[in-house]
Amino acid sequence: MKKSLLLGLLFLISTIGWSQTISVAQADKAGSSSNVISGAGAYHALEAIYLDAEIGASNFIGVGNEIQKIRFAANTNSTGTFPGSIAGYSIYMKNVAAGTKTFTAGSYSLSGYTLVYTGALSATSAGAPYSFTFDAEVTLTTPFARTAGNNLQVLILRNSGIAATGYAWDCSNGNSVDGGTANTSRRYNGATQAVENSTSLSVSAFRPAIQLIRPVSNDATVTVDGATLPTASCFSTPQTVIAYLKNSGTSTIAIGGASVKIDVTGANTYTTTVNNTGALAANASEMIIFSGINLNNAGVNNFKIYSTMAGDGNATNDTAAFTITTTATYNTYPVNTSAETNNLVFQYLKTLNVSNHWTLNSAITASATGAFKNTDLTDSIFPKTGTRFYVQDNYSGANSTGHSSVLYAGCFNFSSPANISFWMTQDNSLNTSLDSIYVVVSTDKAATWTRLQGFGRLSASALLPTWVQQTVSLNSYAGQTIHIGLEGVSKWGNVIGVDDISVTANAPVPVTFGEFVGVRENNSNQLKWNTYTETNNQGFELQRSVNGTEFTTIAFVPTKAINGNSNSELNYTFQDKASSATTYYQLKQLDKDGKYAYSKVVSIKGEKPTRFELANLYPNPAKETIKVTVAAPKAAVVTLTVTDMTGKVVMKQNNQLTMGDNNIALNVAALNAGNYIVRLSCADGCEYSIQRFVKQ
Prior knowledge:
Number of helices: 1
């Protein structure tokens, strides 16, 4: 049985002098939720408790020191439109006894609460996690004063009747003193409006990160949107960093009244100072651009950006600090790396969705006591080689379905042919948890990633965790400078081990390709390619795909070169009687000594379907899953029936189709080895379509 991971908590508390900007948030960036602040339903209610120790015992105490603003941190997982206005809010605050730290499920009461705000919540942007940088801010219509020694309880009601979808908010897990287990909030999301003393709120340890603010007269704030900056990449040209100078006070900042300075130290150095060029009214901001920053030298660059203004009454928001690592650029191949501490090439992390599950440098030794094993693994995982391996830990994260993150290396620049190979573990337990590893590349300094090919952890034949080698072509990125990574996607299954990664490129080209093209003619796909030179060539495997990532060999075309060697142009053709569905093709060129290289991928767009048809079925033969492409002239429900060769029905599956190509997976792992037939039928009596496959 799975066990939830107890997350260690570290909270940020600003308590310098009489500072009145207090953040209560997790410093370890442990999570976010769409069911707080905005909520997923048409109506939303939430109560949360923040401790006196977290806010600071002397902050916002008494008249004249009231809380005047609150801010929430929108997480970068948000898909909502920024800036956005979320209507229908009523926010309440009250002081509660120091011993009141948790909630039980039940209804809320307005007794003792002060209504501090009514109106819309303006969600300006999703900044770096827990940064409270241009996220969502509310100016209280009734400032609220805390009572010394008491905790602060906040009630948020959203009564707009319109679901505020697409927003996610940074949260803390418990409070700063309970180890992350206390139910520090309770909430309701539903289709009907929450009613005092009636609507039940369910408890949760997930509590919204919050910032409490009392503006002072003179207050210049400097921020940097870290989400726009790479944490680790290679650089060959001068870079630009954008900061924001904001007037967080109540008095106007005159032209030139504040300065912003940037200092870069470490592997590269840079410094300059810029003054504001326009007058800044309260809450106004000015973009400050620092350009011409040289980050070409490999190593860690320490950035410090800070504002200076005469009479600034709040020093806690004057400085933004971060680091950017300049990575190596690899031009000599092969690049081989394991997970040993003295040989780390893949060492950088990028979270794509919710949280990271990669563990670097796990101290796994080749012994029964040091090997990795969780409860659901049938046996321990040992390193493929050496004493360590990379762990994609999908098992320990609580409810971690859908989390994805990338383990990546510095930059690579190569000419074709090129590929990446690595070893990963497979097992046959937790067969409903289809975790996977994708080879991904980035052409924009690790900002976005493109999946090339994926590999599942689950293997019905892997009775014990076993190592398998995977290889993916990188040929289509020849001539570019790219990052290469391994994206781990969690479905809350067992861990996946990765070891012995190798990137090979710039080897002597066995075949010089000319064109590789394909056209649709006479209800079939016509493939043509030519070569200018061939050396030791055995021939070409023609591979087909319906999604552009997973290919199956459909034919072998032998070389026309005498003894595999030629210095003159040779032309090849192949006719594939594929369906009208869009189809992708690539060539796998094979040397006589077993080496191989891939061509580019070409696609052939099919005609609009005129009937329901089983367009493609792959892989064939199949071990665990077959993927069926169904071409549909209209949206409809169809039935896929699998029979053995005697006509006995062994599987039946209904599927809702949309017009065009539809990709459907059939789990055939439980079928006995042998020949089977897949038949497509419709409720309205469409023409049958049949495909045959072999179960291994």
